[in-house]
Amino acid sequence: MKSKINLITVLVILTYIMPVNAQRINSASGIVPNPRSVNVNDLNRIKGKIKTGADQTEQYLPYLQGKRIGMVVNPTSVIGTSASVDILKARGVNIVKIFGPEHGFRGDASAGIKVDDSFDAKTGLPVISLYGKHNKPSKEDLANVDLMIFDIQDVGVRFYTYINTLQYVMEACAENNKELLILDRPNPNGFYVDGPILDPKLKSGIGVNPIPIVHGLTIAEYAQMLNGEGWLAKGVKCRLKIIKVANYTHGMNYELPVKPSPNLNTQQAIMLYPSLCLFEGTIISQGRGTYFPFTVLGNPDLKGKYTFYFTPKSIKGMSETPLHQDKASYGLDLRKYNTDKFKKTGKINLSWLIELYNAYPDKAKFFDFTQSNQMGNFDKLAGTSDLKNQIIKGKSEQEIRDSWEPALSQYKIMRKKYLLYQ
């Protein structure tokens, strides 16, 4: 009887102390969840379930010994909570060069702003910009490099430029007989695949290969697809070594510990991005010039049709010259939109695009890139010329989706060959 009472006592005590312990554990990583509502991501960290490729240093540190290392990194490239460059350098890894993508190595450049080569103030290492004079490492850039490392957090969307950087780095490595080590990371939008397949005629800096808007791959899976489908320049193959994410599946919720770019500064923005970035080819602002970009939509000409409004301002490092700067922009507030719907439906949201096109008074200007002053024209973002014309003609969302077939289903079948995770 006494042993039973002791067991019950222990269980009661554990019930009360576990949330406190969970909070302490997460405090060490700068995340202090409400103990009554610890999310899936926090539980995974507490239990040690999800471990990024970078975090598994025991799997690749021995492989780096005696090699001159080049690293393609940005602020998302962390081991634990510290920059991977700093950690690896402190552990004696011979890092000789850093390569920075859009937004720069330290992530302080706005979207679309060209970045110059420089020297990192903290480490003294040379930083080669892959979003400036050239987007592909040159033979000279790689001359003193034995092994390249790619460690950047992606968000799983075709027009997010980090997958283009990956492709150019793979091509450079293949052409110069260098191996590429990929430290893989989860895809926060990896639980679905949707959107029109890119028309090769619309190939650009915001879309290179025939994939849908939401591609459903991690960086390492996409690298395998680039090799396997022969999409690298001249059909070259890059030698890859991959450190997989531990205990990850595509169906898992994954909250990024570091914002992937200045204007994707919340999990809500990351989840809405696949649907809202299409507006960058329109006259509608997605909230650039606020501290809640990609969670709102608006335009000054929609005053009277919507009550919600925001006023874009110049914000250094985020949006210096945002669309509709200093003008109240009326439209939709999506900050409380339940993004679980994307997981349930497996679809991007087209209804907002259709709604705001129908509400806008001067429809001839809605898709006018020269008027919009945005990051890219609509057809290149969509990957097809059909979507714009379908909306103009009043096609239903279902009619639009039907036009994405059979190409979208064929992509889904092809994608399965390259999956590293369920």
UniProtKB/TrEMBL annotation:
Pfam families reported for this sequence = NamZ_C (PF20732), NamZ_N (PF07075)
Q: Where does the source fall among the domains of life?
A: Bacteria
Q: Which ranges carry the Peptidoglycan beta-N-acetylmuramidase NamZ C-terminal domain?
A: 271-421
Please give the Gene Ontology molecular function terms for this protein: peptidoglycan beta-N-acetylmuramidase activity
Domain Peptidoglycan beta-N-acetylmuramidase NamZ N-terminal, chain residue ranges per copy: 69-267
* Name of protein: Uncharacterized conserved protein YbbC, DUF1343 family
Q: What is the scientific name of the source organism?
A: Daejeonella lutea
